[in-house]
Design a protein that fits this description.
mainly alpha; two-stranded antiparallel ribbon
Length: 428
């Protein structure tokens, strides 16, 4: 069995290949986007960019990560199955980028790809005992039936795929967050690799992260290109499938929670979006402007700071997953509560609302208007204060001038009186 140093060299090799290939092919993807007319135009209020941007950058992420997986980790049979599904998911995404598929067709395509991957052997088959106590009793685990295992596996893959797609709303947001989540899962796989044989999964996750890192210089604000649905669907699929492949989830139910905690931010955002649309009696597949990054933008943070805030929260949740994988539960709980606090701060408005439903269903355009009104009121008060200070300064200057004139008049009067006295003395 290869040693840790062997796998470490493969991890480094995978990272270098994916970063370099993604970085080199990103300019090529921009040229191809212009030739194919795959341009994202700001045609509605949901988009935050103001000018047309190419959206074929997912090609660079796809090529970079695939090249890195083929060379160091491609001999693993389950990684090969994941790659087959990844190719199909990427083709589905670029078809949507070029032809603008209806949401139902995209969903059916995702479901079909997830079903194929399940049929080829990547599946969730059981849930371990809650406390993870070592036992030889085969009944300690809840063995899932074929139907239940299929539903859970497909829902996980399709759900995470769409969660990452929904996250792709600001320059650099999805690419950076997926890189952080992938590296977190890769580190968990690495530190438990010798015991559970998860090194190939670690290498593949590093390849996905490297593809995002190589693409990020062209996607961070101000973006030169977007990843499009091709990149977003591919990334969501890969991180979902690789988290299912990881043997760590088979150890205990705590291990099964690790990918869920790592992906907690997109899961939370997607769940909140579905709840928000259901409460507003809208289609759960309808696009809106109520995601976490929209809240941050409405609060006035701007694209870069909003993205960096999201990076920080995703990073905290990644560290929570790492700590739980090492059974450091107290520290993980503290960090989890910190991340939860930040999420609550983002979604709860500064103005009091009447009930939880109003908070969940609030329209970001209304919040933006409220913030704009607040800004106008602030500017009005600020200018009023400036005018008052200026008037006070003018009054002081006028008063000073009047005092100066009084002093001058006094001196002139004294001088004239003195001259008159002198003239009177001469006459006498």
């Amino acid at each position: 069995m290869p040693g840790v140093s062997y796998y470490l060299s493969k991890i480094i090799e995978s990272l270098i290949i994916s970063v370099v290939v993604a970085y080199v092919t990103s300019p090529l993807s921009i040229r191809i986007a212009h030739k194919l007319g795959v341009i994202d135009r700001p045609k509605d209020a949901r988009r935050v960019h103001k000018k047309p941007i190419p959206r074929f950058g997912g090609m660079a992420i796809f090529l970079g990560s695939m090249a890195a997986m083929v060379i160091p980790a491609g001999m693993n049979s389950r990684i090969k199955i994941a790659m087959i599904g990844g190719i199909l998911m990427y083709l589905l995404g670029i078809t949507d980028d070029i032809r603008d598929l209806r949401p139902i067709y995209k969903f059916l395509g995702q479901w079909g790809i997830a079903t194929l991957v399940y049929a080829l052997g990547i599946r969730i088959t059981f849930i371990s005992d809650f406390f993870g106590i070592p036992t030889a009793d085969p009944h300690a685990n809840l063995i899932l039936s074929t139907g239940v295992g299929y539903i859970i596996t497909v829902f996980w893959i399709v759900g995470i795929t769409n969660a990452v797609n929904l996250m792709d709303g600001l320059d650099g947001l999805a690419a950076g967050c997926v890189a952080i989540m992938s590296l977190s899962l890769a580190y968990v796989a690495y530190i438990h690799g010798a015991r559970l044989g998860s090194m190939p999964v670690c290498i593949a996750l590093v390849a996905v992260a490297g593809g995002c890192i190589g693409f990020l210089p062209f996607n961070f604000s101000p973006a030169k290109t977007f990843m499009g649905d091709g990149g977003a669907l591919y990334l969501g699929y890969m991180i979902a499938v690789l988290s299912v492949i990881s043997p760590l989830k088979q150890a205990t139910v705590v291990g099964a929670l690790i990918p869920m905690l790592t992906l907690a931010v997109p899961i939370f955002d997607t769940s909140l979006a579905m709840l928000r649309r259901a409460l507003k009696h809208e289609s759960i597949m309808a696009a809106d402007k109520g995601h976490l990054h929209h809240h941050l933008m409405a609060a006035g943070f701007g694209q870069r700071r909003s993205v960096l805030i999201m990076y920080g929260i995703v990073g905290i949740m990644g560290e929570v997953a790492v700590l739980i994988s090492r059974e450091i539960y107290k520290d993980a709980f503290v960090l989890f509560m910190i991340a939860l606090l930040y999420l609550c701060i983002i979604i709860v408005p500064k103005r009091k609302k009447k009930g939880l439903k109003t908070i969940i269903t609030q329209d970001m355009s209304e919040i933006e208007k409220e913030n704009f009104v607040d800004y106008l009121n602030y500017e009005r008060e600020r200018r009023k204060e400036l005018r008052a200070k200026a008037q006070q300064q003018v009054d002081e200057e006028i008063a000073a001038e009047e005092r100066s004139e009084q002093i001058i008049d006094k001196h002139v009067a004294e001088y004239l009186e003195k001259m008159e006295n002198q003239d009177s003395g001469k006459d006498s």
